Input
Amino acid sequence: MLSKEKGQSPLRFGAIDAAADLERELAEMQKQLSQLLLQKNRLAQLGLAVSKINHDLRNMLANAQLISDRLTSIPDPTVQRFAPKLIASLDRAINFCTDSLKFGRAEEAAPRRELMRLRPLVEEVGDGLGLGPGLIHDGLISLEIDIDNTLRIDADREHLFRVLSNLVRNAVQVLEGQSQDRGGDGKPGEIVVKGWREGRRVFVEVRDNGPGVPAKARANLFRAFQSSSRKGGTGLGLTIAHELVAAHGGTLQLVSSHEGAAFLITMPDRSAG
Output
């Protein structure tokens, strides 16, 4: 430690003291900045966690809305009394979810995998979207399932349901938009979900006969709030689906974007290299 010996300039020691004070202030500023960045990252993580939960919750509420709409055709007086209130409550909940979407970042929980039949799960997705066997969504869109009854896939049931629900729902929304653009006079919308196994990998393709994915959307595919080409869309559906498939060690990719769009899921068995 320097001492103020006789003959040494007091200006020199004043400069040393000022430099020491400045160093302490810089260190404090760095500490505060690090804390602010950490807080910002945590808020960002919370933001996307809320966004993703909100997105899938909105889809679940929309499924419940489709089911509740069918209650209006039941002549029972009690049902007729309460059905409109139920539908109104679901409408409010869906609108709330839509308006409260925020952006952030979060990681999904690790998948809890099981070897299960694929076709029943796809049928469940279709039922939830009003695309069950023999049904045509709003009289405009049909779903074809080209999957053998014996085909099994090694995946987390809930994760895969969310992946397929997001992909099929996106196709439905695109086809609905296409029909509106044509004034309802366009060709019927078709969605085909095809599944097959090659060795220790299962492939699932979700294809539609819509207008395809625009170049602008392809450039930011699977990026939240940047990949959607639909007015009011967030792109979260594809982002969530991509993350969930990746958590299984699989891939999700766009394989066609000219004559309709086709997304291909590649899902390896757990023991696959």
Summary: Residues 102-106 have pLDDT under 50 and may be disordered.
